[in-house]
């Protein structure tokens, strides 16, 4: 092409582009595309989150192995069919599936909050002198004190009772402080309260926690004369009612550096939240914590009434309610859900979840979808509740916490691996 012809061609093309760009229709399309790209870059969760949630609820529903905790008699009255999942992202969007409004006691899912209360009230140095950050590798209800005379970590009974012992005031004041904090980060703040029946039930059989209190006093972890107060306040705290939605907003607040994403209220200092979430990553799932990090990769904390909260920093909080427990005392379905959501929504905090990689394409071809296929029920454990004796017979290497007399192995999949 002659240079003149080339100039004409470029000029005409430029005119076309200018015309195109000034055309309102084109501008609107361009604006839309840019908006979508920005949203995709900044959004906390994939667009199909509700679809994934509904699918996971249905896939995991049959995986209801395990048993209700019965060492606290009142907990054995729970309806084992209840099952709900709630996600709250750090923009305050809430996604729900199943029984998300059924209240149950928070139990050990209170431990991260108790730890933050102690850190905020007593300061990091004072708490660090009494409560460590190491996984105990032991069941949650054992006396776990390290060789420097500290509770191993705040997320087992020993550490949580130690944190309660470090707070000020009588037991009602300590409980109130906890409840007030929870109300600031709950989905339905006005309905958060203590379940008196569960409190009375646990107080009537608190022998093992009493032994923990004695060990804390002997090792000078809690001040002399505070044993009864610490035990009473801890039991009240464990007996506070929450729903999956309450717990999801609590977890989302932790994922959002201490700011409630729904109310935008500043609740706790970022440094305290970050410390707690980091400890939760390695200690939150008890003696199954290592496998949990590999397979789920989300800081999490469970409770024996069947609640499980997961904190995905910067992205969302997840809560699951299903009362049957696996051998570690974690909700069986909850563990399956956490694994499925971690894979389905790309939430593992230590794994690159790039959607463009060649490996991702191969995975998609293999599974036909981005949602991890939920594990099939293991006929060995399906539709039958096992006693602890059967568990031991099935696996002589499994240590069942003595008080979890009804707690059983999960069906196949992550909880069995974790256990
Ligand atoms: O102290 C106890 O045994 C109960 N109040 C809480 C234990 C618990 O939730 C363990 N978590 N899975």
Describe this protein's structure:
By secondary structure, this protein is an alpha+beta fold. The protein has one domain: DD-peptidase/beta-lactamase superfamily (Beta-lactamase, 3-Layer(aba) Sandwich), CATH 3.40.710.10. The protein is 46% helix and 7% strand. The strands form 2 sheets. Strands 2-1-7-6-5 form a 5-stranded antiparallel β-sheet. A hairpin with a 4-residue loop joins strand 1 (84-89) and strand 2 (94-98). Helix 9 packs across helix 10 (227-238). Residues 356-361 and 364-419 have low confidence and may be disordered. 6-diazenyl-5-OXO-L-norleucine binds next to loops.
State mean pLDDT (0 to 100 scale).
84
Structure classification: alpha+beta
- In the CATH hierarchy, the architecture is 3-Layer(aba) Sandwich
Structural shape: elongated
Radius of gyration: 25 Å
Low-confidence stretches: 356-361, 364-419
> Portion of residues in helices?
40-55%
**How far is it from the N-terminal to the C-terminal residue, by CA?**
74 Å
Task: Specify the number of helices.
Answer: 17
The molecules bound to the chains, other than polymers, are: 6-diazenyl-5-OXO-L-norleucine
Characterize the biggest β-sheet: 5 strands, antiparallel
- Run of helices and strands: HHHEEEHHHHHHHEHHHEEEHHHH
Strand content range: 5-15%
Looking at CATH, which topology would you report? Answer: Beta-lactamase
């Amino acid at each position: 092409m002659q240079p003149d012809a080339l100039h004409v061609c470029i000029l005409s093309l430029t005119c076309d582009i200018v015309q195109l760009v000034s055309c309102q229709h084109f501008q609107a399309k361009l604006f839309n595309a840019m908006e979508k790209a920005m949203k995709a870059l900044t959004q906390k969760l994939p667009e199909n989150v509700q679809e994934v949630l509904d699918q996971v609820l249905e896939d995991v529903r049959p995986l209801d192995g395990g048993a209700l905790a019965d060492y606290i008699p009142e907990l054995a009255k729970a309806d084992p069919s209840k099952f709900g999942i709630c996600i709250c992202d750090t923009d305050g969007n809430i996604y729900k599936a199943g029984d998300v409004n059924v209240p149950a006691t928070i139990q050990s899912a209170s431990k991260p909050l108790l730890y933050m209360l102690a850190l905020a009230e007593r300061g990091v140095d004072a708490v660090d002198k009494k409560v460590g950050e190491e996984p105990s590798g032991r069941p949650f209800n054992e006396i776990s004190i390290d060789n420097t005379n500290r509770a191993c970590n705040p997320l087992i009974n020993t550490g949580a009772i130690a944190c309660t012992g470090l707070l000020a005031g009588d037991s009602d004041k300590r409980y109130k402080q906890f409840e007030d904090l929870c109300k600031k980060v709950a989905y339905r703040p006005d309905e958060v309260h203590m379940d008196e029946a569960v409190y009375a039930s646990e107080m009537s059989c608190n022998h093992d926690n009493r032994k923990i209190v004695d060990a804390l006093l002997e090792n000078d972890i809690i001040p002399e004369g505070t044993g009864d107060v610490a035990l009473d306040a801890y039991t009240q705290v464990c007996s506070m009612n929450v729903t999956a939605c309450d717990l999801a907003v609590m977890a989302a607040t932790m994922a959002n550096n201490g700011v409630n994403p729904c109310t935008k209220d500043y609740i706790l200092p970022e440094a305290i939240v970050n410390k707690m979430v980091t400890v939760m990553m390695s200690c939150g799932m008890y003696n199954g914590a290592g496998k949990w990090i590999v397979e789920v990769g989300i800081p999490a904390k469970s409770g024996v009434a069947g609640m499980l909260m997961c904190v995905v920093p910067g992205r969302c909080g997840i809560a699951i309610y299903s009362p049957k427990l696996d051998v570690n005392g974690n909700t069986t379905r909850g563990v399956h859900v956490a694994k499925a959501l971690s894979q389905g929504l790309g939430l593992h905090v230590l794994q690159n979840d790039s959607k463009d990689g060649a490996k991702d394409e191969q995975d998609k071809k293999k599974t036909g979808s981005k949602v991890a296929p939920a594990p099939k029920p293991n006929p060995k454990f399906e539709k039958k509740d096992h006693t602890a004796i059967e568990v031991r017979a099935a696996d002589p290497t499994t240590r069942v916490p003595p008080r979890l007399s009804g707690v059983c192995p999960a069906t196949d999949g992550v909880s069995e691996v974790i256990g």
